[in-house]
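User: I want to check something. If I give you two sequences, will you return the structure for each one separately, not as a complex?

Assistant: Yes, each is folded on its own. Here is the first sequence with its structure:
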Amino acid sequence: VSLGDAPRRSGAASYRPTLLEAAALAQQIGAQEHLTAAALANSRGFWSLAGETDDERIAVLEAAIEVSDKDSADHARLLGILSVELMFGREAERRHQLSDDAIAAARRTGDEKALADVLMASVPANYVPWRTPVTKVNSDELIGLANKLGDRQLWAMANLWRFVAYLVGGDVSTGDPYLVEATRVAEELGEPGLRWLVTEWRTLRMLMRGDLDEAQALMEVGFELGQRSGQPDAFTWYAGQLWVLNRERGELGGLL
């Protein structure tokens, strides 16, 4: 578990198979604590792959949830991670219910860090317009907790997801200051994975504004950061942005 967790924290891509192996070993010997640790560590904080589900990670999460202490903070975290891993599956109602259950479970523990973790997962897990009221309330509470806890990584992510909550709700300009703050902190921290994620949303915002030259420059930066930090869907994000950029320029033929 430690050998998988270390590269994840440093922004390297090699952690997934190591943590899957750790989870398999833990299941074989009945080491519930290590199974939970491996399941929790094997996440980048939102869905694993844009447009796809990671069935192996989902299976580990479901196994860990089955044996975890239902009154624990880790149980709440497992529910939250599973909800967001189901983003691109066909079980939207289950995903939203898992997210709500994770928040309720975290509140019962009284663990503010666990609550912040599941609130952070709740925004991408509820990334649909009809759940906008939920994401706005959750992201507002997340901002308050991140500020109280003084965790700068959490603060950057809280501001990013606050921006996303406004974006999905159509109130984009109100969310812009949160994206600016997320960018500032991400650059200060320098962690490649966090910088990549923030850059991808900044690129989207530039495309929405019609600032195509700036969007193109950010696209290239984001793609490089995604490759450097081993994001498995770095090209998926890049390709989608490239399509929009060429469409707006009237150059879709260039994609061929």
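And separately, the second sequence with its own structure:
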Amino acid sequence: MPLNCLTVMVKLLISIKEPGEVLDAIEGGADIIDVKNTEHGSLGLPSLSTAREVALKIGRLREKSAPLGDVDHYDESLAYIAYVLSELGYDYVKVGIKTNLREEAIKIANDVTSAVSHNVRVVLVGYADFQKFNTLSPLDIIDIAHYVNASGVMIDTLGKGGYSTFDILTPQYLSSFVNKARQYGLFTALAGGLRIEHISMAVHLGFDVIGVRTAACQGGRNGRVRRDLVMELKRKILEVEKSNLGSY
């Protein structure tokens, strides 16, 4: 069966930093295009002009995602930002939970989920390197997501020092994360320095979305997204899914 005839179950999320990368992400086969400011942390909030232009370029060709930032304390502006992104037509609004205080995290997450339109999915992000940065763990984030009626949870790395999520968390931990989230009806996403060799494990672990930037760029994280690199990542996902189907 040709790869392009296979139904994609795992979505490929490609992070871009500017409108000029949209076309490469679309033509490469990205399912979700995520726009962020790579100079402002792991989940850098894009400027309003960038977010608006990216939304217009993508239209309904692909699902769209944008982060609110790596948030370490409650701020009233979060609700305003979340509302604006939802009004621009973003399908997903992500918020990184950078605090180690559960009540603060609940306040942040609840404000965001209350501000967006009903069809916008809020994704709470926990960090693989939570011990290094003293934040709540990804497993803690699942409980908070369930409590505030978020739609999904994601693991990313807060530090961008050349390591990946798989260098920090064991497959057993990641499997527990997926299983716990499923029990609450949450979808799961995995990111954090992922390379093409990580795709197979991410698919086998059962993640619904795989997020990539560095491996899709020429010149690293701060380089530029390339269509052919996105295509390689998408093809790898399809090959693993095809192999999984063939094993049944």
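Because they were folded independently, the notes below concern the second chain alone. Confidence is low (pLDDT under 50) at residues 1-8. The first helix runs from residue 22 to 28.
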